TrEMBL record:
This is UDP-N-acetylenolpyruvoylglucosamine reductase. Its cofactor is FAD. It comes from the Bacteria. Keywords: Cell cycle, Cell division, Cell shape, Cell wall biogenesis/degradation, Cytoplasm, FAD, Flavoprotein, NADP, Oxidoreductase, Peptidoglycan synthesis.
C-alpha cells in the first residue's frame, strides 16, 4: 500500500501482541492509523480492493486463531478527547479508561461505573459495554462512522444502533467503522443512581436514588474490578482474558424455574428481563453461577487455558496458551452447563479465524 499520512505499517506484529488474551497468529499486515482521515482512507482502499480487514481497538474482546490470519489488522489510534460543557467527544482510538478519567477530572458524572473497562472509546457502542448497573446506551448521543457499504462518513444517532444487552447492530456485522463517539454527561459531577447492589452497599447508599461524587464511585468500581481481575494488567494472568467470556443467558421464566429446581439451591440469581415476542416473561440468569454449579470452579484448567482464579466468567491465558486450548475450554464449559441445566451459553467476544465449534 502506498504511503498515507498518519499510517504506520507494521510487518511483524501478531494478534498475541494486540489482544489482552495474548493469543492469535499473524495478520497479513498491520496498519496503525493515527487520525480519522487515515482510518477512512485505509478502510476505503482495502474495501474497494476486497481485502479482508479487522478493525482493532484495544484487542480486549477478540479471540483469534493461531497461524497465518488472512486479514489486514487496522489499528485505530486516533485518540483525541474534547470536552465542551457536558458533552464529551473522543476519537475511536482513545483509551476508554482515559476517557472516563478525563470526564471526571472535568467535573462530569455519568461514566464512573464504566471505569476500568479495557479497550477503546470507539468500541464502547459496538457491544454497548456495561458494568455495575450502567451501560454506554445511558450516555451515548451519537457516533461518527464510516459506512463500509457506501464509503460515506456521517454522524448517526445512538437510536440507530439498536443498543441492547452486550449488543448493537455494529457487532458481528462489519457494517461500519466508528470514528468518533459523543456522550452527554452530568454537569453536577454526581454519579447516576447506583443500580448494582454490591457497589451501593460498599458506598453506603441510603436509597436506590442516592448519588455520589463520580470520583468516589470510580475509585470503588476500580477496587471492585481489581479484586475480580477485571482491570487489565500485563503482569497478572487472571486479567489475560476477554472479560466476561459468556453473556448472561436470557431465558423463559419456565426454564429459569426448572434451572432453579435442578440446582437444588435455595437462592439462585435471576432477574426480570422483559417479555419475548409472544408476551412470555423472560429472566436473566448469571452465567458465572451456572458455570460454578456445573462443576467448573475458579482456576479450573485445560492446559494453559483456565478460568480466572478470581472470576468464574473470565477464560484466561495462563501463559503461552494456544487458541485451540482456549476453544476447547470454552466448549467444555458451554457443553457442561447445557448438560446440567439445559441452558446454552453464548460467547460474548468476537472470534476471528475460528469459532467455539470450528
Ligand atoms: C479484563 C477485562 C475486563 C472487561 N470488562 C468488561 C466489562 O465490564 N464490560 C464490558 O462490556 N466489556 C468488558 N470487557 C470486554 C472489552 O473490554 C470491551 O468489549 C471493549 O469495549 C472492547 O474494546 P476494544 O477496543 O478492546 O475492542 P477490540 O477487542 O479491539 O474489538 C472488539 C470488536 O469490536 C470491533 N471494533 C473495535 N473498535 C471498533 C470501531 N471503532 N468501529 C467498529 N468496530 C470496532 C472489532 O472489529 C471487534 O470486532 C472486558 C475485557 C477485559 C480483558
Amino acid at each position: 500500500m502506498r504511503a498515507i499520512a498518519g499510517v504506520q505499517v507494521e510487518e511483524n506484529t501478531t494478534f498475541a501482541d494486540l489482544t489482552t488474551l495474548h493469543i492469535g497468529g499473524r495478520p497479513r499486515l498491520t496498519l496503525r492509523c493515527d487520525t480519522a482521515d487515515a482510518i477512512v482512507e485505509v478502510v476505503r482502499i482495502l474495501d474497494s480492493a476486497k481485502v479482508p480487514l479487522l478493525i482493532v481497538g484495544g484487542g480486549s474482546n477478540l479471540v483469534i486463531a493461531d497461524g497465518e490470519i488472512d486479514v489486514v489488522a487496522v489499528i485505530l489510534a486516533n485518540d483525541e478527547i474534547e470536552i465542551k460543557n457536558n458533552m464529551l467527544r473522543a476519537g475511536a482510538g482513545a483509551v476508554w479508561d482515559e476517557v472516563v478519567q478525563a470526564s471526571i477530572q472535568a467535573g462530569l458524572g455519568g461514566l464512573e461505573c464504566l471505569s476500568g473497562i479495557p479497550g477503546s472509546a470507539g468500541a464502547t457502542p459496538v457491544q454497548n459495554v456495561g458494568a455495575y448497573g450502567a451501560e454506554i446506551a445511558d450516555v451515548l448521543t451519537r457516533v461518527r462512522l464510516l459506512d463500509r457499504a457506501s464509503g460515506e462518513v456521517r454522524w448517526e444517532s445512538a437510536d440507530m444502533l439498536e443498543l441492547s444487552y452486550r449488543y448493537s447492530n455494529l457487532k458481528f456485522t462489519n457494517r461500519a467503522v466508528v470514528l468518533e463517539v459523543e456522550y452527554q454527561l452530568r454537569e453536577d459531577g454526581l454519579s447516576a443512581p447506583l443500580r448494582f447492589g454490591e457497589l451501593a452497599r460498599r458506598l453506603g447508599a441510603e436509597s436506590a436514588e442516592t448519588r455520589f461524587p463520580a470520583a468516589v464511585v470510580r475509585e470503588e468500581v476500580l477496587n471492585l474490578r481489581r479484586g475480580k481481575g477485571m482491570v487489565y494488567d500485563p503482569a497478572d494472568h487472571d486479567t489475560w482474558s476477554a472479560g466476561s467470556f459468556f453473556t448472561n443467558p436470557i431465558v423463559d421464566t419456565a426454564l429459569a424455574t426448572r434451572v432453579h429446581q435442578l440446582s437444588g439451591e435455595e437462592h439462585m440469581p435471576r432477574f426480570p428481563a422483559g417479555a419475548g415476542p409472544t408476551g412470555e416473561s423472560k429472566e436473566k440468569l448469571s452465567a458465572a453461577w451456572l458455570i460454578e454449579r456445573a462443576g467448573f470452579p475458579r482456576g479450573y484448567r485445560r492446559g494453559q487455558a483456565g478460568l480466572s482464579t478470581r472470576h468464574t466468567l473470565a477464560l484466561t491465558n495462563r501463559g503461552g496458551a494456544r487458541a485451540q486450548e482456549l476453544q476447547a475450554l470454552a466448549r467444555e464449559i458451554r457443553d457442561g452447563v447445557e448438560k446440567c441445566f439445559g441452558v446454552r451459553l453464548v460467547p460474548e467476544p468476537v472470534w476471528v479465524g475460528m469459532s467455539i465449534d470450528e
